[in-house]
Amino acid sequence: MALTCRRPECTVAQTGICVLNNATDKCPELNGALADVVSEGLPPVLEEPIPVSARFPGSGTLAPSELSEITAKSDSRIIGIIGTPDAGKTAAVVSLYLLISRSRLEGFEFADSKTLMAFEDISRGARRWNANNPPTQMTSHTQSRNDRQPGYLHLRLAVEGHGTSMHVLFPDVPGEWTTALIENNRVDRLEYIRSSDDIWLVVNGRALVDVNNRLKAMNEVGLLVRRLKAMLGTFAGKLVVTHLDAETVSADTLEKITKDAAQQGVTLEVHQIASFGTGGKVKAGQGLAPLLRASLTNRPRDKSPFWSTADRLPGRAFWSYRGAP
Amino acid sequence: MVTRSILLVGGPDSGKTNFLARLWPALDGSGQLEAKSVPDNLKYVLDNLNFMLSGEFAPRTQKKGDQAQLDEFVVDIGYSNGRAGGDARIIAPDVTGELWENAVVTSEISTDWMARIRDADGALLFVRVHSQLNVDPLDWVTAEKLLQLQNEDTGSDSHLPTQVFLSELLRFLEHSLKRTTAKPKVAVLITAWDLLDAGTQNAGPNAYLQNQYPLFAGRLKHTEELDVRIYGISIVGGDLNADEVFREQFLKKGLEGSGYIATDVQGSTSISADLTLPLNWLLSAG
Fold it and tell me: How far is A90 from chain B (nearest CA, A)?
């Protein structure tokens, strides 16, 4: 019987050579061989399954690899949020989202979000870091909404007085990464800070007003500033002090923190916020609109100077161009 | 004749079925569009229309097993009042709201329905005033409590806010509606418009969405992928279920002249008795 093959590109019928380099008496694609296989009682080769469902693009957090699609084409800011687990980073982002949801973020109008379901899940506490084994890096996120994966949250906001809308990206990462930076100088997980246009250094305001915790909290902030300085060089950012609704942090404490930072070459602009209005002294979300406006309207951080400012290397010189005589 | 497919998109109890039932008699030539013939399959629409003619709205549609599609309304239409053109065969499948709910929760839909979306010439996106199934955004008190629950299962059965649901549906339509030289069209229909107080009605459909669903209103205003228009719609002009006086008047008067469409026109609200307006806009060029 002449050999024939199910694969249209295979020339075994003419050449006797299998395109898959299989022995002609053993290749499962050969019609003659297939008949032999079937006759031996083995099941036939299965047809490729027809998919029964199609997918829409998800709206979970964005992986770092997905940011360039946004940042390359439009006015955008990446906010590098960093702070220890109890600082209030998540609460700040949740409060920001709730303000936008109710059109109460003064000076801003919601235009779009590619991560709306991620905002919803985080707001409901439905996605939590695995306390026993928190993630160690930003990777491509899964489609599963049961796992909280480090990634970016996205908002497109129409900004009052700004002709076009702006894209804002916030990292959603475990506070344990900041602790690891402070305690063990683990910088690898915090590479996202390098690509940020502004940095929010979030500190728990309650700790700064508690006489038993104040010095520890201030020391922690100071160490964090030093670690960031070592990573980034001198920079300017925001000191975001949470829990304004509990008690206002004293001006002396804030001055000490910012002065210590300035000595390191780090300029911190202080913003006190209340993510929630517990106690009714301040409104929920107070301070967030001015903080966001400052980050979006200030000049973005100089992330990576194109030319190094290193001293001239010895032994190098340019020869001058010799034009035509 | 050109065949045009229109998607009906919206959650449960958003008014899709009642709109479809009311659309058939609205194609009687009193509006801009009219039916050129009586459809072969009129049973589904008639069953629901008969509720209306008996003085009640069609009840919430029950799913038949796993089947998302309830029935399909196919009608040949054209411009009314002797105006030439606009001839098209409209195919409008009525679907359960659960189809769209499930799509938002899972980001998945059957390949058959994805093909229908990709083939659709436009979509009617429904949201109903004062539906008991509408969900408000999370408030700060609840959010603070949820965030303070450390490592506890907060449950994934809390309902998605309506404006997030609608925004996700809009995102799906942006992604999947058929593209030609013009942007795909989506007509947002705010149903049961008559339930709103006079002041809210006078402010218009855009203002209603801005106040009630600011996230969704923002998406509609700033979408770069779709051509969107917003309509308030009352299919009979009042509440057949809760307003006995209106119901009696309706049963005496009938469908003719009942119902209206509200649109924003240059800062004020315009009212029209032509219930075919949204469909006419969807099907028109430009």
Answer: 8
Q: Does the reported pTM lie above 0.80? A: yes
More confident position, B155 or B201 = B201
**A201 in Cβ contact with A240 (< 8 Å):** yes
- pLDDT at B151 (0 to 100): 47
User: What DSSP letter does each residue of B37-63 carry, written as one string?
Assistant: S--S--HHHHHHHHHHHTTSPPPPPPP
pLDDT band (50, 70, 90) for residue A142 = very low
Look at residues A132, A154, A262, A281 and name the one whose alpha carbon lies nearest to residue A205.
Answer: A281
- State the DSSP H helix or E strand holding residue A268, giving kind and residue range, or none if neither: strand A266-272
Contacts of B26 (CB under 8 A, 6+ apart): B259, B274, B275, B276
Share above pLDDT 70 across residues of chain A, in percent, rounded to a whole number: 77
What is the mean pLDDT of the segment spanning B223-237?
Answer: 97
**ipTM confidence:** 0.91
What is the arithmetic mean of pLDDT over A290-308? Answer: 75
Name the minimum distance, in Å, from the CA of A181 to any CA of chain B.
23
Among B33-42, B61-70, B138-147, B180-189, which is the least confidently predicted range?
A: B61-70
Q: Does B172 touch chain A (CB under 8 A)?
A: yes
The segment(s) of chain A belonging to CATH 3.40.50.300 are: 64-297
- How many structural domains are present in chain B? 1
A281 vs B: CB within 8 A: no
Rounded Cα distance between B184 and B14, Å, is: 22
The angle at the Cα of B273, spanning B270 to B275, to the nearest 5 degrees, equals 105
Alpha helices in A128-190 (DSSP H): 176-184
What is the three-class DSSP state of A5?
Answer: strand
Closest residue by Cα to residue B188 from B132, B233, B130, B145: B233
Write out the two tokens for A139. 């990777």
Q: Give the domain range for residue B192.
A: 5-283
The number of CA neighbours under 13 Å toward the Cβ of A289 is 18
Q: Which range, A142-146, A198-202, A275-279, is most confident?
A: A198-202
CA distance B156 to A184: 36
Of residues B89, B93, B116, B88, the one with CA closest to residue B16 = B93
Average pLDDT estimate for A234-254: 92
Q: Which two tokens stand for residue A190?
A: 């915090």
**Mutation for A interface: B114, B159, B215, B219, most A CBs within 10 A:** B215
Tokens found for residue B129: 């005033």
Residue range A64-297, CATH number: 3.40.50.300
